[in-house]
Design a protein that fits this description.
Blueprint (H helix, E strand, L loop, with lengths): L6 E7 L2 E6 L4 E5 H6 L4 H8 L10 H6 L4 E7 L3 E6 L7 E3 H7 L1 E2 L16
Antiparallel strand pairs: 1-2, 2-3, 3-7, 4-5, 5-6
The protein binds zinc ion (ZN).
The site of zinc ion has 7 residues, from helix 2.
Length: 120
């Protein structure tokens, strides 16, 4: 039986989020990737539209530049709400989604990582 996945550590690192999971895997996802994959209804609708060549960035988007989180708050036990620097705050990222969107970090660079307990 596979235990539920939990983040044991979340770290704002460079231009993204580093997550250490309770299964010993560390993953990394860029904030930009998270922002582009915002799971809220209006963003999903936005992504399903055909690309609009005349789409103009909103003043907020221009002012904000690269997506950065203002805050990341746990929602219940299974998700995080990210408030972005462009003011967008309706995206709730489930742990499952965070795991899917992020890429495992190479195991070679585990200098300061805590080793998971060895399974028998
Ligand atoms: Zn959204």
């Amino acid at each position: 039986m596979v235990a539920e996945l939990w983040p044991v550590a979340l770290r704002n690192e460079g231009d993204g989020l580093r997550i250490e999971w309770n299964d010993g895997v560390a993953t990394f996802v860029r904030w930009q990737t998270l922002r582009e994959n915002c799971p809220c209804a209006s963003c999903i609708e936005e992504r399903q539209r055909p690309p609009d060549p005349f789409r103009v960035l909103s003043p907020q988007e221009v002012a904000a530049g690269t997506p950065r989180p203002r805050s990341m708050t746990p929602v219940g036990r299974y998700a995080y709400q990210i408030v972005w620097n462009d003011g967008h705050a309706t995206g709730i990222y489930t742990l499952e989604r965070l795991r899917q969107l992020s890429q495992p970090l190479s195991m070679s660079s585990k200098s300061d990582a805590v080793s998971p307990p060895e399974s028998p």
